């Protein structure tokens, strides 16, 4: 039996703890904040009309089989803890300039038909051709990449890729390059470009292999958890406690002790003696690990990749809007948005708030999250990280966040959804308000396809979560936990 300390009680940390505890290890989870769940955050706003409840992180569950596997591996059934509601549409895409609306769904043939009805037969034929390629990329990556350790690009090169798989994956091609070569309709290109932002990346630089992301979503479906996605954190915490995991909140880990090339424990603020450990699993951003907890300049230098942050409005809205659960309102000029969000530090061009951004609106049709006759809106806009570097924005500059919130509501009104006179309240969260994530980078600081390795640079150190392999998003984070737990193995 190993003494294992998990730093961070996000989904990756809790999932790893549960998997390790069920195999006989002694597991302690240390969480900086007062609540578990990590980016799977929640916010409640009480008003005279009643309480509004918001998911402040992920609002869509995909690849549900990953979570069924997790609960079964820890001796339970997912359906005993969570109520999964399938979504159709998964996402409502609203194109600019009064363009058509395209609702996505988990039936590939039906979605192709919807593409044809909204955008024409040529667009539907293009989508079918792209879909065949996406299927091949998914099949090649799902087993060989997403479910096993990948410590370096050499590991990818050593895989026994079939030539057809390599042709589909197109190493070296960007997602933008792929959609320009495959899709003639600019609106379909917008739809595909959006999936780069799922990893915090710019589609003009993100790898074409990310075409597997929409394939997974539109093949296996999108799901809502009744009561909000935060109920997943409750379920994982319950599994951990039932399995004997010790979970301590309000515990600030300041250092990982690793003399002699192996971990010995962690140091916690306010405690004289370190907490001993044979294994440490870090469920915090890789940048935090290699900058603060176990400084490693070489690995830190590899985390210079720029990643998106998010600017959020939490709105209490009177009446009903008729919106879908997930809605995306596209801008006229998507590239202008990416230029603003990422900036061009090499040319001395600073990042700035996008004047005409893509706006994501989530409205859960769930009486548990809003008073009768009202809606709880989660509004997200891609934004530059918080900071003072050329590729960041100082979101604490007086008046900036409030002014940008006004701008977002104005843009929504211009796109046909005006709620400015129906607001019960408006809460604003800029990237500066996202605690625990460097710069407010909601997808992890290492955006892109190849993330930092799960195995750390010293014996007994492992990384899980959105900033490590296989990447961000609830299913990928949960798979990172499976990879690490299997590598550590059962108690001896």
Structure description:
GO terms for molecular function: oxidoreductase activity. Belongs to the carotenoid/retinoid oxidoreductase family. CrtP subfamily. Keywords: Carotenoid biosynthesis, Oxidoreductase. This protein is an alpha/beta fold. It folds into three domains: 3-84 and 226-304 and 447-488, FAD/NAD(P)-binding domain (3-Layer(bba) Sandwich), CATH 3.50.50; 109-219, no CATH class; 308-440, no CATH class. Helices cover 33% and strands 20% of the residues. It contains 15 helices and 22 strands. The strands form six sheets. Strands 8-7-16-17-18-15-21 form a seven-stranded mixed sheet. β1, α1 (11-22) and β2 form a beta-alpha-beta unit. The longest helix is centred in the N-terminal third of the chain and has 24 residues, at 121-144. The chain is globular. The model has no long low-confidence stretch (mean pLDDT 91).
Task: Record keyword descriptors for this entry.
5-stranded parallel sheet, 492 residues, single chain, alpha/beta, FAD/NAD(P)-binding domain, 3 domains, 20% strand
- What is the overall pLDDT average? 91
Number of strands: 22
Question: Which architecture of the largest domain does the CATH hierarchy give at level 2?
Answer: 3-Layer(bba) Sandwich
Q: How would you classify the helix and strand content by structural class?
A: alpha/beta
CATH superfamily of the largest domain: FAD/NAD(P)-binding domain
**Unreliable parts:** none
């Amino acid at each position: 039996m190993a003494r294992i300390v998990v730093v961070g009680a996000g989904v990756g940390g809790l999932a790893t703890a549960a998997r390790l505890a069920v195999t006989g290890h002694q597991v302690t989870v240390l969480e900086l904040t007062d609540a578990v769940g990590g980016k799977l955050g929640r916010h409640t706003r009480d008003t005279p009309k009643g309480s509004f409840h918001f998911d402040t992180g992920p609002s869509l569950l995909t690849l549900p089989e990953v979570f069924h596997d997790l609960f079964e591996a820890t001796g339970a059934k997912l359906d005993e803890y969570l109520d999964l509601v399938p979504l159709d549409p998964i996402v409502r895409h609203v194109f600019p300039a009064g363009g058509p609306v395209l609702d996505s769904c988990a039936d590939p043939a039906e979605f192709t038909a919807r593409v044809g009805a909204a955008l024409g037969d040529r667009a539907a034929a293009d989508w079918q051709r792209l879909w065949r390629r996406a299927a091949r990329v998914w099949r090649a990556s799902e087993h060989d990449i997403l479910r096993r350790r990948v410590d370096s690009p050499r590991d990818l090169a050593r895989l026994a890729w079939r030539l057809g798989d390599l042709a589909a994956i197109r190493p070296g091609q960007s997602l933008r390059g792929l959609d320009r070569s495959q899709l003639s309709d600019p609106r379909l290109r917008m739809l595909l470009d959006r999936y780069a932002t799922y990893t915090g990346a710019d589609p003009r630089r993100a790898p074409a292999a990310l075409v597997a992301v929409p394939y997974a979503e539109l093949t296996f479906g999108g799901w809502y958890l009744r009561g909000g996605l935060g109920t997943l954190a409750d379920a994982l915490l319950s599994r951990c406690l039932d399995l004997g995991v010790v979970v301590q909140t309000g515990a600030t880990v300041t250092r990982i002790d690793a003399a002699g090339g192996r971990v010995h424990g962690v140091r916690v603020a306010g405690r004289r003696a370190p907490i001993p450990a044979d294994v440490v699993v870090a469920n915090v951003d890789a940048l935090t690990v290699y900058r603060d907890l176990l400084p490693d300049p070489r690995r830190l230098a590899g985390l210079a990749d720029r990643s998106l942050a998010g600017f959020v409005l939490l709105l209490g809205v009177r009446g009903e809007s008729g919106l879908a659960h997930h809605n995306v309102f596209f801008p006229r000029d998507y590239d202008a948005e990416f230029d603003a969000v990422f900036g061009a530090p090499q040319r001395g061009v600073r990042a700035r708030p996008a004047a005409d951004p893509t706006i994501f609106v989530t409205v859960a049709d769930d009486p548990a999250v809003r008073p009768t006759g009202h809606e709880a809106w989660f509004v997200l806009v891609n934004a530059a990280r918080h900071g003072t570097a050329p590729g960041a924005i100082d979101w604490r500059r007086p008046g900036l966040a409030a002014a940008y919130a006004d701008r977002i509501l104005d843009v929504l009104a211009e796109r046909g959804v005006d709620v400015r006179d129906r607001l019960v309240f408006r809460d604003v969260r800029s990237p500066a308000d996202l605690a625990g994530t460097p710069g407010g980078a909601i997808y992890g600081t290492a955006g892109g396809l190849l993330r930092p390795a799960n195995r750390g640079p010293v014996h007994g150190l492992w990384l899980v979560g959105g900033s490590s392999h296989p990447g961000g998003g609830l299913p990928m984070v949960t798979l990172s936990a499976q990879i690490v737990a299997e590598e550590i193995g059962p108690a001896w």
